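quick q for whoever's on today - can somebody do inverse folding on this one?? i tried earlier but teh output was garbage lol. tokens:
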């Protein structure tokens, strides 16, 4: 549904939203993200440090994965509709991992003339292991004027 307007009446509890599959994570991407975010923890940029920490090399910033989940939502409903995003990091992302972000509608409600949709959201790697899990709330317009 990217690029289409999503209406409150068209969303059903239990409905899955369109998945977002990201390109494989690269070490260059992690260095760029460190610069953009200001998070220069060597665990994300120095291979030997990641090995010494027991990860076999560098690992991705958790916020990079969280950002992908945010993109899933804004691709679906647009950036202005995202009202809440709460996640926990449940797995490690390494270079070469392909992250797929998914979501499912948990609840619909109307409060003070605004339509809210609560979702379960998560990101998983190519092995189906969840690396980010959380909940989100978006607002959607009504078809009824």
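ok took a stab at it. sequence:
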């Amino acid at each position: 549904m990217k690029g289409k307007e999503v209406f409150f009446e068209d969303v059903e509890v239990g409905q899955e939203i369109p998945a977002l599959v990201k390109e494989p994570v690269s070490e260059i991407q992690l260095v760029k993200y460190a610069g953009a975010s200001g998070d220069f923890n060597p665990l994300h940029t120095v291979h030997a440090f990641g090995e010494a920490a027991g990860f076999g090399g560098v690992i991705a910033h958790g916020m990079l994965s969280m950002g992908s989940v945010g993109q899933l939502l804004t691709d679906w409903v647009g950036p202005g509709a995202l009202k809440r995003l709460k996640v926990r990091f449940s797995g490690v992302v390494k270079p070469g991992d392909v992250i797929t972000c998914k979501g499912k509608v948990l609840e619909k409600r109307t409060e003070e003339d605004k339509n809210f949709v609560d979702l379960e959201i998560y990101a998983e790697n190519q092995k189906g292991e969840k690396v980010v899990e959380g909940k989100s709330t978006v607002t959607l317009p009504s078809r009824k004027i």
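fwiw The chain has one domain: 13-140. also The chain has three helices and five strands. so keep that in mind when u check it
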